[in-house]
Amino acid sequence: MTSISWASAERFGGRGLTGRQSELFDQLVALFLANGFADFTLDELAGRLRCSKSTLYALARSKEQLSVAVVKHFFRRSAERVEEWTARAVGARDRVGAYLTAVARELRPASARFYADLAAFPPALEVYERNTRIAATRVRELVDEGVRSGAFRDVHAAFVAEIVSTAMVAIQRGEITERTGLPDADAYQELATLLLHGIAAP
User: What fold, for 16-199?
Assistant: First the structure.
């Protein structure tokens, strides 16, 4: 198996997390996905999590750094689950479908407000963009595997990956939602269906 993809595996600041800190990050992820993060103050976050501000300062030195750390935590944990789900699939065709379907499932809890806040905050948006690029590379690996095994037609894997990457970037930028009304998660699901029907061997 390749290294974790679709998300950076880094921990914020290079530090390991205690069990309590990991729990707080999980709670912050759920809060941010549902409500966005731009309007929260550290006081409000401490109140929601029933912890002290000093506890939050142990996670990050400012609200802005905390927001980036939470976004990183979300993508890192999501990447682990996506790869675990993909590893259960048997055969290249099922792995491609499992990968994109798992990405869709991980993105599904994210609200429109969360995406709007990502788009408006470049440090957090860069995390999403980086993970989108990693995902496109992972799809190319899976397509290459399928071509070699005969599960897929003898397609040009780099071209297919480039098309997938273009679609992923359009999803990440909000262009697909704007043009079609599809949320990111649904767009990834449609991409999986389109890709598999297009390259499957007869």
Answer: Tetracycline Repressor; domain 2 (1.10.357)
